[in-house]
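> call design_seq(struct)
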């Protein structure tokens, strides 16, 4: 667990407690918004936030990936090899809510427009009018090996054309089940007796 204060902890499963951890490789140059760790514990992905090192993309609209090594003997987290996976540019879509699929090369994320400007636009589906209806959300996949950026069109599609813009906050199941990777997400699309 990494805290904004710079304090971090590891979970000691045997003792069922959190223990202080030493962090190497994350400093003032790494501003990570809504970070996530791969299910194998070897990768760390995040939306790039404001900070000293702007060489890694547009704030709130770009994604970085780092390698992570966990040493349980010394309770040390070591972050290395930062690379830019995606940069939508200053006028592009906000990129947030990254989640790793069971294959740690693949990530799913939300991209969209119209978010509340405070908190670097990272609040969940909250728009400038303090409602959930104006913020758009589309689900995409990133391939860490190739940097391929692919819209998940079937996942985004619904009963009405507007449904493509109403898909938020993906979360991936950490294992494959039934031969598939599973992603759970929030949507305000029309369904059932609300379909018009």
């Amino acid at each position: 667990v990494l805290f904004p204060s710079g304090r971090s902890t590891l979970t000691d499963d045997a003792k069922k407690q959190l223990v202080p951890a030493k962090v190497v490789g994350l400093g003032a140059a790494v501003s990570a918004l809504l970070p996530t760790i791969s299910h194998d514990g070897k990768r760390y992905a995040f939306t790039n936030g404001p900070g000293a090192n702007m060489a890694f993309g547009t704030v709130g609209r770009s994604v970085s990936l780092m390698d992570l090594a966990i040493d349980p003997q010394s309770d040390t987290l070591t972050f290395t090899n930062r690379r830019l996976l995606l940069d939508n540019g200053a006028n592009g879509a906000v990129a947030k809510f990254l989640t790793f699929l069971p294959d740690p090369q693949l990530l799913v994320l939300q991209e969209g427009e119209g978010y509340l400007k405070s908190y670097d636009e990272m609040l969940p589906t909250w728009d400038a009018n303090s409602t959930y209806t104006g913020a758009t959300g589309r689900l995409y996949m990133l391939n860490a090996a190739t940097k391929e950026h692919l819209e998940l069109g079937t996942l985004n599609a619904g009963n009405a054309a507007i449904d493509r813009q109403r898909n938020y906050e993906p979360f991936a199941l950490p294992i494959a089940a039934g031969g598939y990777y599973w992603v759970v997400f929030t949507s305000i699309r029309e369904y059932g007796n609300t379909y018009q």
